[in-house]
Amino acid sequence: MDNTVRSGTELLWSALGGDPALVDRVEYGGTSGLLPARLPVMDLARASVAACSLAAVEHAGLPGPVRVDDGAVATAFVSERHLRIDGRAPVSFAPLSRFWRAADGWVRTHANYPHHKAALLAALDASDSVEAVAAAIGERKAVEVETAVYAAGGLAVALRTPGEWAASEQGREVAARPLLTRERLDDAPPPRRRTGPLRVLDLTRVIAGPVATRTLALLGADVLRIDSPHRPELPDQHADTDIGKRTAALDLDRPSDRRAFGELLDSADVLVTGYRPGALDRFDLHRPGLVTARLSAWGDYGPWRERRGFDSLVQVATGIATVEGSAEEPGALPAQALDHGTGYLLAAAVLRALTEQDRDGGTRLVRLALAQTGHWLTHALPRYDAGRYLGESEGPLGHLRYALSPVSYEGGASGWSRPPGLAGADAPEWLGA
Fold first, then answer.
1. What pLDDT score was predicted for residue 349?
2. Fewer CB atoms < 10 Å away: N or C end of the chain?
3. Which pTM was predicted?
4. In sequence order, what E strands does 121-262 have?
């Protein structure tokens, strides 16, 4: 296990600009075989948590070691499923957030938030029922549904294969770019940190961004999350991902709230945003000496840069749903791993930016996208390929394909010396007798 997991950690730590020698501080353990999938989901989960933990000890100036437990990682990656509020299980997906059969394939929608649900129903001219939405989508082609719902301000994505995504303009944009970007924007001197915890202003929603800021709160930061009073976070989502934080409501279109927000931003060390690119530009969020982390679904490039998106939709668009299922019956990852993995990477990127800023100064900007994490999962990590462990031979039984023996050691046999013969056809004697 160590070699596979270490390679993932090394890749992520390199993307974060970390010292390669520090990877030796990471120790792995715990129950194996968790988060089973066709794609290496557990490897992504372990590596992202390892990189985040490593960035934390580096920033704190601690020697380590960093211990990554598979059981803890797998449980955290499905934290929403384990949540209970006075014994009640949360609602992960609303009834209209699901796969639907279109006239020529499949569509997945996301309608957990009331305004997204309203946009979906308006685009389809359908009543608020599963039956009505199913009928409306069933009459249309998948891409037509996607286009109409997005135009109305909702969220729907047509199922694509990996090849179809790779051939699309957005897919090519994602493939051409790194997993994450880290920029120094100016030559500001190293900051003089005030006494007390780091101040993190949190403008994120749903899972990835809140997981990142939840992690920063765990590490001692004063995290203040700001939401619009008109679109509060879903209660169950708040209970799961806002642990360790404080939350407040500000309407940035009101002058008094805008001033209050500006004062908070002026004294913040870190700003984390999770809205689609361009959505917050009118608020002038740049401050010299600030570490800003921007998260989006599709990246701030390509024709989809202004689209909203969530983990489940990114899986569908990028072909992950067909890898985990098929084009006829799409599947899903065993966790919202793009969200959680990106969340820990985002926290790691913030910590590494703070470490570098304390040493070298500079206003810092890091950018991540769920689609980039999905591309990394499907292309950078080694996947199980049974063909690597199969052999073929010709013999009395014909052309045989068989599993190679897992017993292997230096100087040992590379395979069996003979194929199976016809049953009972050998002489009852020892070789060479």
1. 98
2. C
3. 0.92
4. 156-158, 181-184, 199-203, 222-227, 246-249
